[in-house]
TrEMBL record:
Enzyme Commission code(s) on record: 3.4.17.19
Family note: Belongs to the peptidase M32 family.
Alphabetical GO biological process terms: proteolysis
Details of cofactor binding: Binds 1 zinc ion per subunit.
Record-given protein name: Metal-dependent carboxypeptidase
Catalytic site positions: 255 (proton donor/acceptor)
Length: 489
């Protein structure tokens, strides 16, 4: 056991340094002065160099060879450390540091280009990011598929072929449901002016309602909402729009799903490879079930309607049912994070289908905007109006997160399975939600999934929680039932 003890002591220090680097990223998105971008890029590169050296330290190989798994937790730690060690050995230190430097710089360039609707200002640095990530993918793949190698960073154990098959089963029923809804009488859009301060009052309240521990976290504003950190320091962001309070409220609930997953992990796993979510797909299952199956349910929106009336006064919606329909309104839109449940996955599939050829070298950065615009028109039936609704919409590619997007739809699939099991386990769920009480729902998720962190492989994590093998069926059944009721289909 001496080798395992030494290995875990070393690993805890590495995990702690990684958390520090994550905090630098959070600061860059929320509070860092704009003039500090160049220095921050150097800081990130320097810290990445230290982390890469630790992650490829020859002693890791020696400790792994000499360690034995005395129990399930030790076995899982050894599995994850070995997986990361073998991956990182294939990536040169020079490349790891350069990626950290360029993506830190690219993030600021993307934000400025987005504000100015200036794709040309972003493309040169995106070209650098793509080149470096292709190089990294080729190194990790070791002769295999470049995109799958990158995908495994976010969803171990899956492949683009498996996801393509799953998404191929999603698309026809989603498109058919959307077309049926479009032919039905439409739900009016909620209109009005909603002050930012009041939106943030509601945001803080729903965060607490869904179990977010502010003693171990905070809520700030950012261009693109996100969650970061783990264990005793988990931070979330949201954004506001004076004409659309749902953007703030549901972005907050979404990020709280991520954050309470991290806060809910068993403290024994903190600062170990198991002390974070099992994968990004499993992580997304938490944010999506919080946001949609719970937060947009008829029961919870009834409670939310009452709170918004108290905070905003009369905002022109006469009753709870009209409000529920407004929250779940299906409408044309450009932005993935603001998309309704029916069309959200179509936005993800667009990105998934573009980034695969981009990483494999079959699509060039110079042609990416045209490819995006053409695909958007094909999928949604209307043209984009500006770059911030298209290629400049998401932060992900600027920071090199290729292989990340499909985990959003995989998370929706997992959420559909979890919701089915949750409804069976907590028959009084709607009564709870109507009082703004999510404690039993969140408690079930914490007990059956969240507390285990990365103990199990991603698909096994969900299968163990729900008692059956995950598939797209429960999600599609839920969507067809919910929106069939809403639109009288």
């Amino acid at each position: 056991m001496t080798a395992y003890v030494d290995l875990m002591a070393f690993q805890r220090e590495t995990e702690a340094l990684a958390q520090v680097m994550g905090r630098l990223g959070w600061d860059q998105e929320t509070m860092m002065p704009s003039g500090a971008a160049a220095q921050r890029a150097e800081e990130m590169a320097a810290l990445e160099g230290v982390l890469h050296a630790r992650r490829t330290d020859p002693r890791l190989g020696e400790w792994l060879a000499a360690s034995e798994a005395g129990d399930e937790t030790a076995g899982a730690n050894l599995r994850e450390i070995r997986r990361r060690y073998e991956r990182n050995l294939r990536v040169p230190a020079r490349l790891a540091a350069e990626l950290a430097r360029v993506t830190s710089r690219a993030q600021g360039i993307w934000a400025e280009a987005r504000r100015n609707e200036d794709v040309a200002a972003f493309l040169p640095v995106l070209e650098e990011v793509v080149r470096l990530r292709r190089e990294e993918g080729q190194a990790i793949a070791n002769g295999g598929d470049v995109y799958d190698a990158l995908l495994h960073d976010y969803e171990p154990g899956t492949s683009s072929a498996e996801l393509t098959a799953m998404f191929g089963a999603l698309r026809p029923r989603l498109v058919a449901l959307r077309e049926t809804i479009k032919a039905a009488p439409q739900v009016p859009e909620m209109q009005g002016s909603f002050p930012e301060e009041a939106q943030l009052v509601i945001a803080n309240e729903v965060a607490r309602a869904f179990g977010y521990d502010f003693a171990r976290g905070r809520l700030d504003k950012a261009v693109h909402p996100f969650s970061s950190g783990s264990g005793l320091d988990v931070r979330i962001t949201t954004r506001t729009n004076p004409t659309d309070p749902f953007n703030c409220i549901y972005s907050t609930i979404h990020e709280v799903g991520h954050a309470t997953y991290e806060q809910g992990i068993d403290a024994r796993h903190f600062l170990t490879p198991l002390g974070q979510g099992a994968s990004m797909g499993v992580h997304e299952s938490q944010s999506r079930i919080y946001e949609n199956q719970l937060g947009r349910s008829r029961a919870f929106t009834g409670w939310l309607y009452g709170r918004m009336r108290q905070v905003f006064g009369d905002f022109g919606v006469p009753d709870e049912e009209t409000f529920h329909r407004a929250v779940n309104r299906v409408s044309d839109g450009y932005v993935r994070t603001e998309a309704d449940e029916v069309q959200y996955n179509l936005h993800v599939l667009l990105r998934f289908d573009l980034e695969q050829p981009l990483m494999r070298g079959d699509l060039q950065v110079a042609d990416l905007e045209a490819a995006w615009n053409d695909r958007f028109r094909q999928d949604f039936g209307f043209a984009l109006d500006r770059p911030s609704h298209g290629l400049l919409q998401d932060v992900h590619w600027s920071v090199g997160l290729f292989g990340y997007f499909p985990t959003y739809s995989l998370g929706n699939v997992y959420a559909g399975c979890l919701h089915k099991a949750l409804r069976d386990a907590v028959p009084e769920l709607d009564g709870d939600l109507a009082r703004g009480d999510t404690s039993r729902a969140v408690g079930w998720l914490r007990e059956n999934l969240q507390r285990h962190g990365g103990l199990r492989e991603p698909r096994q994590t969900v299968a163990t929680a729900v008692g059956f093998d995950p598939s797209e069926g429960p999600l599609l059944d839920y969507l067809e039932a919910k929106f069939g009721d809403l639109y009288g289909l």
